[in-house]
Design brief:
Shape: globular
Strand content: 15-25%
Strand order of the largest sheet: 3-2-1-4
Structural class: alpha+beta
Distance between the termini: 41 Å
Mean pLDDT: 86
Low-confidence stretches: none
Oligomer: single chain
Order of helices and strands: HHHEEEHE
Number of helices: 4
């Protein structure tokens, strides 16, 4: 299977999550993804291979989100990546950071594995102050 064909399901997932965020909000979308993410397809792997796999999947999700007619922002991309990693037994955390630019509050979301951003340029992450709280894809209480 060529790379383009492998990106189609991920591209569709990022767009679906973007629509869900608009329709039902973050909390419900996150709860839905937690259910999907809890259905692991693969056992957890060792630290070295989990990092390599997380990075590969992060690049694939970024490529899929960048393709197609509808742009996908960082939050749907991060939520989809976090869910994919969870299904593969790779622990991750969705982080959200903010910065002030020309009097406007800007935000960015990314995924961290073992405390390191996955498939995100360090110079972009350095511009945002992350919230203390992590935004794990988790079931509501």
């Amino acid at each position: 299977m060529d790379e383009g064909a492998r990106l189609v399901p991920v591209a569709l997932a990022t767009r679906a999550v973007a629509v869900l965020l608009r329709l039902i909000g973050y909390r419900r979308t996150s709860a839905l993804l937690a259910v999907v993410g809890s259905r692991r397809r693969a056992p957890a792997c060792d630290a070295a291979s989990s990092w390599a796999r997380a990075d590969e999947l992060g690049r694939r999700v970024a490529a899929a989100a960048a393709r197609g007619p509808l742009p996908v922002g960082c939050l749907p991309r991060a939520l989809v990546l976090g869910t994919i990693l969870s299904r593969r037994g790779i622990e991750s955390v969705v982080r959200i950071g903010v910065r002030r630019e020309d009097g406007t509050l800007r935000a960015h979301a990314w995924v961290e594995h073992a405390g390191v951003p996955v498939a995100e340029p360090p110079e972009i992450i350095a511009r945002f102050a992350p919230f203390e709280r992590d935004f794990r894809v988790a079931l509501p209480r």
